[in-house]
Amino acid sequence: MTDVEETTATLPMARKCPFSPPPEYETLREKSPVSRVGLPSGQTAWALTRLEDIREMLSSPHFSSDRRNPSFPMLVARPVRPEDDSFRPSLIGMDPPEHSQARRDVVGEFTVKRMKALQPRIQQIVDDHIDALLAGPRPADLVQALSLPVPSLVICELLGVPYSDHDFFQACSSKMLSREVSPEERQTAFESLRNYLDELVTKKEADATEDDLLGRQILKQRETGEADHAELVSLAFLLLIAGHETTANMISLGTVTLLENPDQLAKIKADPGKTLAAIEELLRVFTIAETATSRFATADVEIGGTLIRAGEGVVGLSNAGNHDPDGFENPDTFDIERGARHHVAFGFGVHQCLGQNLARLELQIVFDTLFRRVPGLRIAVPVDELPFKHDSTIYGLHALPVTW
Amino acid sequence: MKIIADTGKCVGAGQCVLTDPDLFDQSEDDGTVLVLNAEPEGEEAEENARTAVHICPGQALSLA
């Protein structure tokens, strides 16, 4: 067992270079890879910076994701909490065996084959938006023209949420993920979106069809006699937010990165068979949803030679893990031919991202189509003037002015 | 080499199917792993099996 130095470090740490993790991660990993950190909530927690330690923690049964428990490490000053207990934790906030059953109920909707069946429709959505982009004024904001609408439309159609309400739920989602808004504003955004989805699920329960995921879940619940309205509302909530915000940011960040690395872009233009490998590398390099890998210990466990006691919070800094030189050679180099798929950008363990194959497919169709149809695409402002989301729980870009 | 799958631990992420669709598939009902070929032959198939084991998030796959 090694001695651990008390550090004064506080999470979250800011990225200095928009394409790299916060520079302090490297110092932490070298000095004390399992170290004490302060959180904006006033809690203290352990921060993990080594890939192997993060994988071990995320696959151990002795760490909990239960966000209702006060031991759960929170990376915001005051978390959103429902005022009553009618809101169920979503998948990401549950532990087995509750989680195992809930995930199994829905995971069949997200298999590799089911996602592939969506390919023609996603292609059509991407083509329509690129048609509109090309017909519109230059420069254009790629976030509004492509990055945000494509995954939003796809998740709306899959779930059965009217896309015409996108301004409303995108605004709610963005407020909930922002570190800049007041806790009251965040709470209001949470309540509004919850009420909206509560009404939507109620409407669907009156007229459930096989046409969308929520309808299929309602019909399945009826078959098993386990109708649970609150569970469906929380599932809709999670999938709607996770389904558009994350992929949208990866589309924008990936486009910038590929444009900034023309040698790498040339490789996927010459051989679209390499696009998926490029996407894995982009996921690794950015690791945009880092706080999803926080847990607390339910027993005394040793991780990386350090004893973590029951009740202590742990933040798996997955972006640090994805830049650990013991896990990835020359981790700061963007190399689409690296072939490394053991990154933890989608997490690891039982909570690994449910929608990861939908995300991969959307990114693949977007990059292949965008660079083929707009070969002269370029960023319309200097890269250091781009508004990167240093203020959000999910990293990305607020806007991406492009021209061609 | 023999691939062993523990469907009780599988979380349906589909990483194995992405790695080698000739070796793995997913159940249509609950997304859990189906091993299509438990005894991969040849360097590439064996390497894919090792990758699938390494990246499986539920640690549901092993080799014997």
Structure, briefly:
Chain A has 404 residues and is of the alpha+beta class. Chain A contains 15 helices and 10 strands. In chain A, α7 (149-159) packs antiparallel against α11 (229-260).
Identify the biggest protein-protein contact and residues per side.
A-B, 23 and 23 residues
**Approximately how much helix is present in the residues of chain B?**
25-40%
Tell me which CATH architecture of chain B applies here.
Answer: 2-Layer Sandwich
In percent terms, what proportion of residues of chain A is strand? 5-15%
Q: How much beta of chain B, percentage-wise?
A: 15-25%
Structural class of the secondary structure composition of chain B? alpha+beta
How many strands of chain B?
A: 4
Helix content of chain A: 40-55%
Distance between the termini of chain B: 6 Å
Biggest beta-sheet profile of chain A: 5 strands, mixed
Protein name (chain A): Cytochrome P450
Cofactor (chain B): [3Fe-4S] cluster
Pfam families (chain B): Fer4_13
Protein name (chain B): Ferredoxin
Task: Describe what this molecule looks like in 3D.
The complex is a heterodimer of chains A (404) and B (64). Chain A is an alpha+beta fold and 404 residues long. Helices cover 47% and strands 8% of the residues of chain A. Chain A is built from 15 helices and ten strands. A five-stranded mixed beta sheet of chain A has the order 1-2-8-5-3. In chain A, strands 4-10-9 form a three-stranded antiparallel beta sheet. Residues 1-5 of chain A have low confidence and may be disordered. Chain B is an alpha+beta fold. Chain B has a single domain (1-61), classed as 2-Layer Sandwich (Alpha-Beta Plaits). Chain B is 28% helix and 19% strand. Chain B has helices spanning 15-19, 43-55, and strands at residues 3-5, 24-26, 33-35, 61-63. Chain B has a two-stranded antiparallel sheet. In chain B, strand 2 (24-26) and strand 3 (33-35) form a beta hairpin. The chains are: A alpha+beta (404), B alpha+beta (64). Chains A and B meet through helix 3 and helix 15 of A and helix 1 and helix 2 of B. Chain B: It comes from Amycolatopsis thailandensis. Chain B: Its cofactor is [3Fe-4S] cluster. Chain B: This is Ferredoxin. Chain B: GO terms for molecular function: 3 iron, 4 sulfur cluster binding; metal ion binding.
